[in-house]
Amino acid sequence: MDKLIMGIVEFREKLLPQYADQFTKLALAQTPDALFITCSDSRVVPDLLASTHPGDLFTMRNVGNLIPPATAEGISTGDLSEASAIEYAVLVLKVSNIVVCGHSECGAMKAVYTRNAKLKAPNLDKWLCHANNAAFRLEHEGPLDERLKPHDQLSQLNVLVQLEHLMTYPIVHQQVAAGALVLSGWWFNIASGDMYAYERRSRSFELIDRDMADRMIARLAARAR
Question: Has this prediction a pTM greater than 0.90?
């Protein structure tokens, strides 16, 4: 807590002057390009990893980067917080991209993989049921990358399952079908600091280096035409 408090002071004294004008503008409105859905894990820091600034990302974080699926009427089958963030991002902020980002060594994925009930955490157990489809796929269909640890294999499949859950929301499905919204699956390797993006063509997560980034940006530009 000491570090957190002193960090506020350091920001105020050293960094705030650089962002003063930007915060003045952001006080009136925000126009983020993307909704970034990721885990609550303290080692995953979206603004650091993507070199973004205040106002660039609309971020939703929870344990396991999970999105409870919706009913045909668009009502979440789980917590309303996630559904509300999706609705606000798509309907009000009109984001053109949604990214679901999983990561290595995820505690939530370890719990799902081992089916560990020793924590006696009924709310957490109920929440993690939204990753059960990913566990089923890992068991019956196998991993995307056999070189990874089992819980990391699960983490990658979980990203794809949560993208499918996103598509159960009518507003998301409609915007994707209209070409106004693009869904992407990313995966962060904590040990290496590398970010990967899922490619349907290769059915794998590929490293986002400069060449990969150029290809991704070109595809987005082509869809926008």
Answer: yes
